[in-house]
Amino acid sequence: MRALPRSLLLASLSVALWLVYAALGPGQDFLGYQSFALHLADYNLARGIYSAPWLGLLVAPLAVLPGRWGYLLLLGLTLAAGVLAARSLGGKPFVLLLSAQMSWVLWWGQIDGLTLIALLLAVLGYTRRSWPLLAAALILAAIKPHVVAIPVLALWWWTPGSRLKSLAAAGALVALSLAAWGNWPAVLAERLVPFSQSTNYHPWNATLGPIALPLFVPALLVPLGRPQRLLALAATAMLVSPYMPYYSTLLLLAFPLPWPLLALAFLGYLPGLIGTTLAWKGVVLLPLGVLAWVYLRAARASWTPEVHRTVPARIEAV
Predict the structure, then answer these.
(1) Beta bridge pairs of residue 205
(2) In which band, very low, low, confident or very high, does the pLDDT at 1 lie, cut at 50, 70 and 90?
């Protein structure tokens, strides 16, 4: 009986957040995606877009809606993705919804809900051995690869019976996109180089960059169950990524984490108290803390026969 009131409370919170951001949110980033979708024929014109062109196809149904309705629907989809991802992976949906990361995504109309959907589809594809779900996950992961590609690829690799079909389906989309938009990867690369080197993004870019590459060694080699390895790979990828604004760590909040780490979900609300740089860059402690937590638990488990999991058993090895 407790599950029903909890679900009602979660639904009420989601509706309340939707109403608040529907009334107050500018949705400025969504306007950029909307313009991209409406002028998708020429990828060269999409100067402010740093994603694969099929993002425009996904945004198109929202882009053609009148007024602010596209942004309002995106709010609802993002909130729903957050709830579904957290409940499926064993995280705390209330924390995810109330986090500073989610607040930023909702306020500006960001598309980070797609990273949650990509991971969720990959988990479902892995557990159900479904190549169409894995193909969809790969396609979505390519939109924000610096956030979610590594964990999605891990789940894809752990599903050998579906690898070839899912990769072929995703490859077919890439081939079609090249036929439709030409050599868009080269155009995208030309945009990404100056973007990644720009100092304009330093106040909120919390990445450690290439210096963190050695962290992939323990993420791949330390004896871990697949749930723990998935979490370790996701956290490591964020630290290595050339661009990790604090709201990109929203993905980690879908996993079951201890409360000391979950407290970092609210650090981004404190620039007025502790300064913008610390409030936004301090979120690097979240993936670092995740790695420390996973490896300490693994070490403790090697000393005792205690069974532990950091992600629900649905992602266990079979």
Answers:
(1) 245
(2) very low
* Token pair listed for 110: 């960001």
pLDDT digits (tens, 9 = 90+) for 121-155: 999 999 999 999 999 999 999 999 999 999 999 99
DSSP 151-193: HHHHHHHT-HHHHHHHHHHHHHHHHHHHHHHSSHHHHHHHHHH
Ordered alpha helix ranges (H), the chain: 3-24, 28-38, 54-63, 69-89, 93-98, 100-108, 113-128, 131-141, 145-157, 160-181, 184-197, 216-221, 226-240, 259-262, 271-274, 276-281, 285-303
Angstrom distance (rounded) from CA 85 to CA 67: 29
Burial environment of residue 206 by CB neighbours within 10 A (0 to 12, 13 to 18, 19 or more): buried
Burial of 235 (0-12, 13-18, 19+ CB in 10 A): buried
Which three-class secondary structure state does DSSP give residue 235? helix
Domain boundaries, the chain: 3-315
